[in-house]
Specification:
Radius of gyration: 19 Å
Structural class: alpha+beta
Strand content: 5-15%
Low-confidence stretches: none
Shape: globular
Length: 276
């Protein structure tokens, strides 16, 4: 099992202590997925993606207490941020329902806000990573839970995601180019990294039937995609590493490269099916 960095372990130790204080004899399991589980944690960039399992469902009555735990953690440790959800054992492996069904009312913490509802991150990628590479902080190993996600489900989800979320996002970006290029360069950096490396992660999954980190996906793209796209891929990689490449003459040129690359990659994935 991967060892956690000192910074991450410190935050988790504090979190566990606070949780035990506020919800005694309630915590059954704590698991880490995301970039940490992929051995791709980046200081001042990566989050602690967590799944907390409790022996009773936390409800709106617990909101203030649960929120206070995360507020104390966020006030003490500015980075890394915690990002995750509270569930019971029977919720493991469930998927997101966009209908907004009130039956799926999980507490989740995202962007420093505690919310209740259906959890947007319950998808085949999350459960695949949880079952294959999830890090156990407390509780039984992930293999002890019955999670039935196969590679076909994984790739089908990714392809659908590219043609819905990502295709719509790129269309909105293209329609809002004039507005975006007037934003601060640091804001545009976030968009470049999120889009380029996010799509490359999808490309990797479709081709390899597995999951990879953002940086790993960037390096993979440099090997498997035409050289004409290498500059924007390298730009995204440098942003992820908190450095600057300065390979473009303007933010407009950079944004146009992102849009062109994104359209190309989506077309490639659609024309090649699963790429397998």
């Amino acid at each position: 099992m991967l060892s956690l960095s000192t910074t991450v372990q410190t935050v988790l130790d504090e979190y566990i202590n606070l949780f035990h204080e506020q919800f005694p004899e309630t915590l059954e399991g704590l698991y880490i997925h995301g970039s940490i589980a992929l051995d791709a944690y980046v200081d001042d960039s990566s989050d602690i993606d967590f799944i907390t399992i409790t022996n009773r469902r936390l409800t709106e009555k617990d909101r203030d207490t649960l929120s206070s735990i995360h507020t104390k953690i966020a006030d003490t440790y500015k980075k890394p941020e915690m990002d995750g959800v509270y569930i019971t054992r029977k919720d493991i492996g469930k998927l997101y329902h966009s209908s907004g069904d009130s039956a799926y009312n999980y507490p989740y913490f995202n962007d420093n806000i505690l919310s209740f509802g259906d959890y947007f991150n319950f998808n085949p990628i999350t459960w695949w990573l949880f079952s294959k590479k999830g890090i156990t902080v407390l509780g039984p190993e992930p293999s002890a839970y019955p999670i039935d996600i196969n590679s076909d489900q994984l790739t089908l989800y990714v392809l659908e995601n590219m043609n819905s979320y990502w295709a719509n996002r790129i269309q909105m970006m293209e329609n809002s180019t004039e507005k975006i290029i007037n934003l601060p360069s640091q804001t545009i950096d976030v968009e470049v990294e999120w889009t380029v490396l996010g799509l490359l992660r999808q490309f990797y999954t479709l081709k390899e039937h597995d999951i990879i980190s953002k940086l790993g996906a960037g390096e993979y793209g440099l090997v498997h995609l035409p050289e004409e796209w290498h500059t924007i891929i390298k730009d995204a990689i440098h942003i992820r590493k908190n450095t600057r490449l300065n390979a473009f003459d303007s933010d407009r040129e950079r944004l146009e490269a992102v849009i062109g690359f994104s359209k190309y990659l989506i077309r490639l994935c659609n024309s090649s099916g699963s790429l397998g």
